[in-house]
Amino acid sequence: RPVPVTVAVTGGAGQIAYGLLFRIASGALLGPDTPVRLRLLEIPAAVAALEGVAMELEDGAFPLLESVDISDDPWLGFSGANIALLVGARPRTSGMERSDLLAANGPIFTEQGAAINAVAADDVKVLVVGNPANTNAFIAMTNAPDVPAARFTAMTRLDHNRAIAQLAKKVGAPAADISRMTVWGNHSATQYPDLAHAAVAGKPAVELVESSWVTEDFVPTVQQRGTAIIQARGASSAASAASAAIDHIRDWALGTPQGDWVSMAVPSDGSYGVPEGLISSFPVTCANGEYTIVPGLDPDDNARARIDASVAELVQERDAVIDLGFAKRD
Ligand code: NAI
């Protein structure tokens, strides 16, 4: 029997986890041959609810699910984790500024970064979903000096998938026909969904849609999609976010298809003028459990300005959490 993979998930009693955990248990994350051990983390007030989720996981009788452990202690929860999905975060409540949100989440990701550093498996891969995702990932990364920085990533895959869906709908093609979509920057309204290199069944997307649709419809729809879901559903995207988290880790672990790429927020290596170490979304290819930023795309002036604006927001967030003492420069 293959070696089981230990997957730690924070925010285990939350909405996204409710969509995520059952798919992990079913094999959607790592394929039908890899058994999984789940380690679920919550805050003390939500441990009782988490016990209920663990009971439901048990009731799924999933052949691949070897064990479910629950905890409110990151030093236990991340123990031996090969994959860590940091979904739990302090939500933004009314009247809260972005700076308040950064301050509220700083201690959570400082502690979780330190715990991952101390007790996770040597090969740990980290995905931060909890918002502000890029900067939370940055905090965790800088608090885990013994883990290679490249293992800390944040989720822009939902934005990527939303961009694919909008283009597919526009041209009347199945989502499977869309390749080389790109999302740049922050997981926020400043993100830049870019279809300059996207293809529909191999044909350049820019030849199939009007440029006015791209600027007036496509870009704002993708940027504002999270808000539109909240307005329609009365709660933020959960099942689609869970699905995107599965896609992110599966592609990172098992590889992207030949000729295609995906969007992941990863520590910059200085590519595309993004300051080194900043966790920003890039197009990446994955193979052998590692990702590579797609080189040589040469964004045009408009794309350049949009990427720069989103990166400027990330720099501000980074500087704010450094000033608050949650992260160190370098
Ligand atoms: P939720 O509020 O339903 O669940 C969050 C859970 O995290 C709660 O059960 C809470 O008790 C738990 N939690 C809070 N602090 C924790 C800690 N220190 N350790 C362990 N657990 C902790 O929220 P939902 O809908 O599941 O969303 C989770 C996060 O994901 C939010 O921050 C949301 O903004 C973000 N999100 C990110 C997306 C992305 O594309 N990157 C998309 C959608 C949501």
TrEMBL record:
Binding positions (NAD(+)): 11-17, 105, 112, 129-131
Keyword Nuclease on entry: no
Active site: 187
Source species, domain of life: Bacteria
Classification via InterPro entries: L-lactate/malate_DH, Lactate/malate_DH_C, Lactate/malate_DH_N, Lactate_DH/Glyco_Ohase_4_C, Malate_DH_AS, Malate_DH_type2, NAD(P)-bd_dom_sf
Family annotation (CDD domains): MDH_chloroplast-like
Family stated for the protein in its record: Belongs to the LDH/MDH superfamily. MDH type 2 family.
GO MF entries: L-malate dehydrogenase (NAD+) activity
GO term, biological process aspect, one: malate metabolic process
Pfam families recorded: Ldh_1_C, Ldh_1_N
Alphabetical list of NCBIfam families matching this protein: MalateDH-SF1, PRK05442.1
Annotated substrate binding sites: 92, 98, 131, 162
Reactions performed catalytically: (S)-malate + NAD(+) = oxaloacetate + NADH + H(+)
Name of the protein in its database record: Malate dehydrogenase
Alphabetic keyword roster: NAD, Oxidoreductase, Tricarboxylic acid cycle
Positions of the Lactate/malate dehydrogenase C-terminal domain: 156-319
Organism placement in taxonomy: Bacteria, Bacillati, Actinomycetota, Actinomycetes, Mycobacteriales
PANTHER family in alphabetical order: MALATE DEHYDROGENASE
Job of this protein: Catalyzes the reversible oxidation of malate to oxaloacetate.
Oxidoreductase is among the record's keywords: yes
Domain Lactate/malate dehydrogenase N-terminal: 6-145
Assigned EC number: 1.1.1.37
